[in-house]
Amino acid sequence: MGTSGVENWALFSIGLDLTAAIAVVSLAIWLWPRRDRFGSAGGVIVAALLLTAGWSLAVAASTASRPDFTPSLAESMRNLGWLFVIYRLFASDGRHASLAPIRPVILALAFVELLHLSVTFALSTAVLAPDVPRAVFDFNVMFRLLVTVGGLVLTHNLYAGASRETRPGLRWPTSGLAFLWAFDLNLYTIAYLAGTWPVEIAAFRGLATLLLAGSFALAASKSRDELRFRPSRAVTFQTFSLLVIGVYLVAMVAVAQWLSYAGGDFARLIELAFLTLASAVALVVLPSRRVRGWLKVTLAKHFFQHRYDYREEWLRFTRTIGSGGMEAKPLGERAVQSIADVTDSPAGLLLTPGDQGELTLASRWNWSEIEVPAEAFPLRSLEVFQRTGFITDLDDIRAGSGTSGPELDVPQWLLDDGRAWALVPLVHYERLVGMVVLARPQIARKFDWEDFDLLRVVGQQVASYLAEHASQEALAESSRFEDFHRRMAFVMHDIKNLASQFSLLARNAELHADKKEFRDDMLVTLRNSSEKLNALIARLSRYGTGGVERLEKVGTAEVVGTVIERFRGNPQVVVAEMQQLAVTANRHSLEQVLVHLVQNGLDASRPENPVFLSVVADGLNARFEVLDSGCGMSSEFVRNGLFKPFVSTKSGGFGIGAFEARELVQAMRGRLDVESREGLGSRFIVRLPLAAATDLYENIANKDQRVA
What parts of the sequence cross the membrane (predicted)? Predict the structure, then answer.
């Protein structure tokens, strides 16, 4: 470096050191009447600040070309002053007595400083050979490094070993000392490696002193607890990401420089090839979801007291679950997403109670490939979830280590799918309204108490949304029934008008039957009335009252024969399997249900695709199956539309056929299930109790009544 460059850095150093000296002296004067805020260390801190100001003045008064003994003496006095401050801060909460190594360490560092001063003074007055100054320089730097490292270790132990109550008062003083000695550590390390004094870096020592003064000013202020640095998680993540990228680039340049020196004749080629490969790896690896997930988990674990930013989580939850509009996702998908976002899960399922209380698939979110059975969660396994709201880690169940929670009976299909990760029950007023199955995130981790607490609260909120939605649907359905009743009143009015016309026509026929004009007019009236009546009957013939008058023993062969006779001449209807069974049912209602299901299969299928009807024994029940290979239905429609009254995909339909079919089957003590996939077809399954089973139940019930 030229002479002008050294002089410029010297002027910059003098200006910064003078500024630091003024700031430190001002702080000492201001702090003296307020020294009791630091307890017994207050007076020592003021003295250390004055020693630091003296050191800054000594450094400013010296020159880089003619270093003398005065700055070295001032720096040693500064270090001794701050070592004594650390001891007094240890003593403020009694740790100087409980931590025995503290006093020997401080005494050892003080001895090193005094030894360094003695040797430096002796060498400064002696006449040395030309090759000795380098050894003297290395000796001075090594002694400074020993004191600096020791000071940093003491500062770390001072804060890390403090109790929760005393830490707020030590946060800013330890930060200031860390600024001062961390800068010196880097300065002396560079000086030792370079073998010469780094004038450019040493010029900024005044900046470290200003940071020290600012930290102690904050520590003495009344609002010090309000000045705690609390970066948002987004800022921390982005800053850490930039830091990682910067370290990666520095390492890449360092390796490239080493290759340029060690590569020989092909150095340039090797260097360029390495830079190309390293850049390609960075472009592929750094933006990946797995790396981002690892960074988030690492930062949340080591940089924050709490894993979650609860304000941000709550805002995101409300935005997701409360989004509306034409393009908004259905409530079921939004419910799954709102819970999955908490754990960064990429997909999930929503299971809600079916007709018999078991859980069935209600919605999917980004998880179309998983196969979910019609009975996703049996009723017998739900009592423990409803009672405890236990959030289940499926990996613990698979490993057989879920001993800390209640006894759980998880369906095998969830355990077989390795992507299924966790179960979150949705409990509303001690009633299980659903369950969310979360898919495994990119970076899977063990759940802790924060995960359980947040998932439990979010699950309760989602449960309230689902319960409210169900209540609104029930009110809407009741309103639609009222509308239907009003429409039926108009239908009855039309039927009454037709009946009145027929009655009037019959009376007039008694008087005018012999007149040709009357007969012609009568034929026209009969034809018009008949067409109106037939059209009305055609719309109403497939829908009954939804009730069952009487249950009796019914043969399945006779019922199926009647249904097939109804579709005579249609080759699409095929009886796949027929077992002669006797069931307890109402024959008319059972025929009506099967006719409706077969007709639905025909409506959904192409003319060349058959619709199969079969009857087999299934335990204590008879199982009627209607299978088609038509257009199929989505799980969302099966759940929310198929059995809802007045929801029809057919022109002119009342939309109560499937609803009434299920009501009739339930009235016959049976059950109607549906399995359907879009583009593949549908399977309707009607289970009715066998007559023998019904007799057995009745005999047991009668016996119990006689015993009672």
Answer: 12-32, 44-64, 76-93, 105-129, 141-160, 172-195, 201-220, 240-260, 266-286
Beta strand 552-555 pairing with 392-393: unpaired
At residue 684 the predicted structure's pLDDT band, cuts being 50, 70 and 90, is very high
Residues 323 and 388 in one domain: yes
Do residue 429 and residue 415 come from a single domain? yes
Q: Which amino acid is at 607?
A: P
Residue 658 belongs to some domain of the structure: yes
Cβ 691 vs Cβ 553: under 8 Å: yes
Residue tagged 């004009």 (tokens): 517
Asked whether the CA dihedral 277, 279, 281, 284 is positive or negative, the reply is negative
Q: Does any domain span residue 708?
A: no
Whether residue 346 sits in one domain with residue 458: yes
Count other Cβ atoms within 10 Å, centred on residue 85.
23
CA 85, CA 559: separation in Å to the nearest integer? 99
Among residues 678, 576, 685, 668, the alpha carbon closest in space to that of 623 is found at: 685
Say which range, 431-440, 487-496, 669-678, has the weakest mean pLDDT.
Answer: 487-496
Q: Record the pTM.
A: 0.44
Residue 172 lies in a domain: yes
Amino acid at 434: G
Domain-located, residue 704: no
Strands 552-555 and 348-353, how do they pair?
Answer: unpaired
The C-alpha atoms of residue 238 and residue 312 are separated, in whole angstroms, by 16
Find the helix or strand (DSSP H, E) in which 4 lies.
helix 3-31
Which residue is associated with the tokens 């009739």?
664
Q: Are residues 613 and 559 in the same domain?
A: yes
Q: Is 283 exposed, middle or buried (0-12, 13-18, 19+ CB in 10 A)?
A: exposed
**More reliable by pLDDT, 32 or 124:** 32
Average pLDDT, the chain: 77
Q: How many independent structural domains does the chain possess? A: 5
- In this prediction, residues 548-562 reach a mean pLDDT of 86
Query: Dmax of the chain from CA atoms?
Result: 157
Domain boundary among 302, 323, 347: 302
Do 363 and 283 belong together in one domain? no
Q: How far, in Å, CA of 317 to CA of 312, rounded?
A: 9
One domain for residues 508 and 367: no
**AA identity, residue 502:** F
Using the predicted structure, report yes or no on whether residue 303 has a pLDDT greater than 70. Answer: no
Do residues 438 and 332 both lie within one domain?
Answer: yes
Domain that holds residue 154: 3-229
Average pLDDT of the segment spanning 74-102: 75
